User: What shape does this take?
Amino acid sequence: MPCNIVLIGFMASGKTTVGRLLATYLTWEFVDTDGEIEKLVSSPIPAIFAQKGEAYFRQVEKEIIARVAMASRKVIATGGGAILDPENRARLWADNKVVWLKIPLDTVWQRTAGDDSRPLLKGSTREQVEALFKQREPYYALAHLHVEVEGKSPGQIAQEILEGLKVWLESCR
Ligand SMILES: Nc1ncnc2c1ncn2[C@@H]1O[C@H](COP(=O)(O)OP(=O)(O)O)[C@@H](O)[C@H]1O
Ligand SMILES: O=C(O)C1=C[C@@H](OP(=O)(O)O)[C@@H](O)[C@H](O)C1
Ligand SMILES: [Mg+2]
Assistant: This one.
């Protein structure tokens, strides 16, 4: 029976950072779908986008999600665009708890200034990123638990997730 916590949210909301910490608190395994993609393709994300394109990246992302969503007692950090695909959503939501790390767009911008690791931010204007943000928000809002990240440390956010999922977590022990 899958019993995973899935972190979703816009780029730089802290899915990877908070997910890793949350997994240590729970003594569960941590999986980052972007990390799994990089391992499978043996290439960093910017190189995958540059050499093979976004469509290829999404195809590999989908394969990885099909695999990890069936795991058990794992904290799964997704990439910010993973929830756009309806099959990904069906797999991530099935028997798992999905948590939205909700970040203001201004904070995304501050956190990623000078960071070249996210091709969709690097190659886009602020207006384009804002459009992506608004397009994705209704899908993030489908999460079981919404956590505002602004002004909180990764540890505080991880604690808030533990508190919010307390009853469900009892059934996963
Ligand atoms: N709660 C937080 N407060 C301040 N900085 C954070 C917080 N969470 C993450 N960060 C920083 O923001 C950046 C993006 O975090 P990351 O975990 O990679 O986000 P995501 O996986 O959602 O893209 C990193 O530099 C990370 O250290
Ligand atoms: O939002 C997106 O479409 C993407 C988010 C990235 O992950 P993070 O959300 O961890 O930055 C990574 O999957 C890729 O660059 C595409
Ligand atoms: Mg990440």
Q: What stands out?
A: The chain is about 55% helix and 15% strand. The chain has a mean pLDDT of 96. Residues 15-16, 32, 34, 77 surround magnesium ion (ligand 3) (CB under 6 Å).
